[in-house]
Write a structure and sequence with these properties.
Radius of gyration: 24 Å
Oligomer: single chain
Number of strands: 0
Largest sheet: none
Number of domains: 3
Strand content: under 5%
Order of helices and strands: HHHHHHHH
Helix content: over 70%
Distance between the termini: 70 Å
Shape: flat
Structural class: mainly alpha
Length: 213
């Protein structure tokens, strides 16, 4: 047993020594990026899938748990693959040109986005929409910072909030099919199911009656 313990400790020391080698930093960063992508994707998707599945999806408990596991795996896998691809391409470009420039990030992410998130499915669609909203905010702030548009005299956020909510409710009421399915489900629950009830049970306790009365 002592010999086995010594071997494990020696292996750990060798691994830690390898991790300290600067010449392997780029390759090791790619591997850790894959790990972090997988972990982060699972942390983000699991609670979201859990809530959305039990709120809006029908089926047995086994079917719901399977759906949650599949969504979590898909999100975790895609994010891990993307980080791995992005950091790998970034390291390759920096190695070829001898330095890192801003275009490297854009090109590496474009290629990674095409390869990993190019399939139009519900998981990828949600991720892209999440990023798109933040890109629009980021580009707006950058445009002000660079002087391309003047600094607003008043906080424009109330106007943005009004336009966003006005537009999304108009789309929900009159062009519902253009909205993402989970958003349709959420809005149906909030704005349509609240119009229907029969007694106190489905007015205060439940959203819909489950009996046949």
């Amino acid at each position: 047993m002592a010999g086995a313990g010594d071997s494990v400790r020696a292996l750990l020391r060798a691994a830690n020594a390898l991790l300290q080698q600067r010449r392997y930093h780029a390759a090791l960063a790619v591997i850790k990026g894959f790990r972090n992508g997988a972990v982060y994707g699972a942390k983000i998707r699991a609670p979201h899938a859990l809530v959305m599945t039990f709120l809006f999806k029908s089926g047995s408990l086994r079917e719901k748990l399977k759906s949650i596991a599949q969504a979590t795996y898909a999100h975790s896998r895609n994010l891990a693959y993307f980080v791995f691809t992005y950091k790998g391409l970034l390291a390759a470009q920096s190695g070829l040109q001898g330095k890192k420039i801003p275009f490297h990030s854009f090109l590496a992410a474009c290629i990674g986005g095409w390869l990993v998130f190019g399939d139009n499915n519900p998981i990828n669609s949600q991720i892209i929409m999440y990023l798109l909203s933040r890109i629009l905010f980021g580009l707006s702030r950058l445009a002000v910072e660079k002087g391309y548009i003047p600094q607003p005299k008043q906080d424009p956020f109330p106007l943005v909030a009004a336009l966003v909510w006005g537009t999304v409710l108009w789309l929900f009421e009159y062009h519902r099919e253009t909205l993402q399915p989970s958003l349709q489900s959420s809005m149906t629950y909030l704005y349509e199911d609240s119009e229907v009830w029969h007694d106190l049970s489905d007015f205060l306790v439940y959203n819909k009656r489950t009996d046949s009365k």
